[in-house]
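Predict fold of Fatty acid hydroxylase; 1083 aa.
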Amino acid sequence: MAEISPIPQPPAVPFLGNTNLIDTHVPLHSFELLAQQYGEIYKLVFIGGRTTVIVNSHALVRQCSDDTRFVKTIGATLKQVRNLAGDGLFTAYGVEPNWGIAHRLLMPAFSTLNVRTMYEGMLDICDQLLLKWERFGSETIDPAEDFTRLTFDTIALCSMSHRFNSFYSMEMPKFIQQMTDFLTQSNSRAYRPGILQSLPLFGNGSYEEDIKDMKEAAREIIRNRREHPTEKRDLLSLMLGSKDPVTGEFLSEDAIIKNLLTFLIAGHETTSGMLTFATYFLLKNPDKLRKLREELDEKLGPDDGEEISLEQLGECEYLVAVMRETLRLSPTATARGVEPIEDTIIVGGDGDPANPANKHFMVKKGQGIIIQEYIQMRDHRIWGEDADSFRPERMMGGAFEKLPPAAWQPFGFGARACIGRPFAWQEAQLVLASIFRRFDISFTDPSYNLVIKQALTIKPKDMHLHVKLRPASAAAADAAARRRKHSKITLGTEATKETEGGGDGHGGQKMYVLYGSNTGTCEAFAQRVATDAHAHGFHATLATLDSKVSQLPTDGPVVIITASFEGEPADNAVHFVHWLESCPPDDKSLFKDVQYIVFGCGNREWANTYQRIPKLVDAALSSRGATCLLERGEGDAGAANFFSVFDEYEAKMWEVLSKQYGTSASQGSAEPSFKVEVVDVGTARAKLLRQPDADMAQVVVNKLLTRPGTPEKRHIKIKLPVGMNYRAGDYLAILPTNPLEIVKRVLAHFGLSAEEQLSIKSEGPTTFPVDRPITVFNILSGYVELSQPASTRDIATLLEHATDEESKAYLTKASENHEETILTKRISVIDILEDHKDINLPFSSYLQMVPPMRVRQYSISSSPLAHPGHLSLTVSILEAPALSGHVTHSGDPAKFYGVASNFLAHLAPGNRLAVVVRPSNASFHLPNDPSVPIVMFCAGSGLAPFRAFIEERAAQKASGREVGKMLLFFGCRAPDVDYLYSDSDLKVWADSGVVDIRPAFSRSDHQACSGCKYVQDRVLKDSQDISTLYRAGAKFYTCGSRRVANGIKEACITILKQNRPTEDAREIFDRVQKERFASDVFD
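Predicted 3D structure, encoded as tokens:
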């Protein structure tokens, strides 16, 4: 017989034994140190002479997990938990009859099949977490607290159909707080002398009060169920109405209360910890996070508001590996207790009794043993030299299945293993997939390293996160698109569903018009193509590019109209572009049956990235076997002939498509494809006004910033809808209505009453409401652009309806000299109609000519740190004499009104408007490190994003954080005219040292501008300060018109020439632009 080795023990002190070695706040730390000192096994003596053996190696744990030799015991902490949960499933002794009854009744209820029926409830609570993070992610998130809310609410809803509504309040619900305090106290009491438990010390009084309150709350849940029974067969129903199949007994109400409380303890505590640890490990290992994201993107697709299905989760192998590895490194229940049924010998080392190097230890019947799961699952014998590293790959490829018995057991083992494992696993899969699919998550403190807090379980301590919605990149669509999908108003820049032609028949060759659009221009072009399709013998489907990821159609031509935004795809084209890039290059069979056309929109101001995305899409399709039917078209949004270029390209496109597919206009319906008829005269206008919905914001403040009598600039504060958030530097997109003045002009020309009602029918896809009554006023004010310059195609249509030779001559000249005659004077269709009354254009034709209303984007001028749930805009109101010199029917000189700016200008506090936050270019945000200095160049309302930047830094400084120097170059007319916020916010921030302002006044020689007329002049004058900050690693930003941006660029190049005369200054500037110079240029 092998020699029995003594179990080592640290030196003890009288009365206390080894109790003084245990940190009562985080006992795990003490056990880790003792394991390092004493190895695979040791014993401790606690107060009263109780001896406990602690085992740390896999070999010993495997032997102690043999149900024929060992049974579960209730350790010191669980004995304290029994003060609340008694003989509930988790804390019962094995010999207690209620454990057997409850186990037999409830074990089937937690089968994998039954847990699947609880998925809907899990989705419900998970969505509440997601909505909270969407709204408050820019603030500091405590994931341990939020995951506690989530898991608590989930187990309550799924097991007893009760809602605690934890996410409905910023404060933790009383019941949850009491339970958290109870578990913390129970852990501390486990290591205190018993005599201290009865004294009014250490929170004993509140401990007893919490127990009383929680039992009463459980009793009330049961009472409510008895009074209001439900057909739902949840766990509470099972406990109330089921007999034990063995004894024939029902559970007593006392036993039901104890098990109900057990569910709430065990059902939330461990899972919330696991979710928090998984988040920590993923953030500390970006390569693993990237792998997880790639899998979620592939298996789940874009976050378009569709629920994640259980079948999709089942395909996420890497997600499962992440969860397994998380529980290996940080099992939230770090230890469990067993005792031998009889005297027995356990073998150390590798556990082989025949290996002479292994020690043998005797443990007596009834000897308490603590299995340190936290330590044994890092055993280097099993997990290798990198056992302390987070490596999910070790759980894949069949490796997990080949692990030795008991090597991975975070849910306990044997008959007393956690019966709720399928529930916890399903819930954790859903939550982890949801948050990492939807959000970009980062530590508030990038240097954070794991600190543990311990109650009944362990969790990361003081771990705080910043959370923001992921850009529409390889993973998820903007969450605002998800909300819009379910709202009653859909903003015109996002199609979440395909739109097909309507009407009684869908005759014609199929075609697909796909667009990528942020500002609405590409969508408007795509809408025009889809509308015109019917007339050319095609039946069009209109959709976003993202909707066709992995499924490009082959049964008709694919027309792609997409934009580049500083070299990046539009928000609703990101997934599509990433998918194309990830497809095997030069695989000619991939798209061999796809026939396509690409038209690209861009801005030549961004020479290095002009048309990058359209070029990329064209090249990617062509190199992978698709057939290009027409050479890619290009439109420069900054050019005067932008719309005319598209008109010409579209005409060529129809020629090519008609020839390729053998279609003609006769293949369409013989009836007109677009008809308008009057069905009522002003009797139901109110019913058709827009309804407030999830995307409806509310104006709080609208005040004038400039001196009366000068061009208006306004500060507009807006209360956002719940769940919509933003970052400093982002845009707010608004859906405006046309100025009343131009709507009246159109009504007058066509002799229509604003109250008249129309019914619109269309054979093709359209942005108009179809087949229902709507007032003429609503159509003209909200659905179409009335002020856009007439295109060459518009002029051709007008020419067809002109009867006077003078009008025909004018229109012919306008067509031949379009830019000079029309574009530079911004002459609209209604301008031409008012000047040439012989043009007998039907109203339906007019509606088809004018483009659909598009959203406008404005830079947000506030920080969410200062105004959570609110934002502000700083807007220039455009109202000026029309460049055309046109005179209206009334004889008054026509004015040009900016559509969106005038819409905003006339909103009063309390008015509502449809909005959505749009992220700006990734580089146009503040550095994550607030100590990085920044230099900002702007003029006029270009101040908007920089006001947001300054406000954010001011809030950070007020909170005690170190902030870098901010240098603002701001151009305006005069200090008493339009020096925005100079007597309010900017003054306060400048006085507090947050920002250094360098103004330039174009119409004043005020001393503050140091004689500088324009921003670029001030930049050159203060070049030394700019150079100093450049050398200090500053980041640079420009916001303003193209003219302002070009002037600043040239000034910066001049400074570079002065500082580095032997080098190519323009080349240096181009490099700086790529690395740390962000611009937001508008016209």
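The first strand starts at residue 41 and ends at 45.
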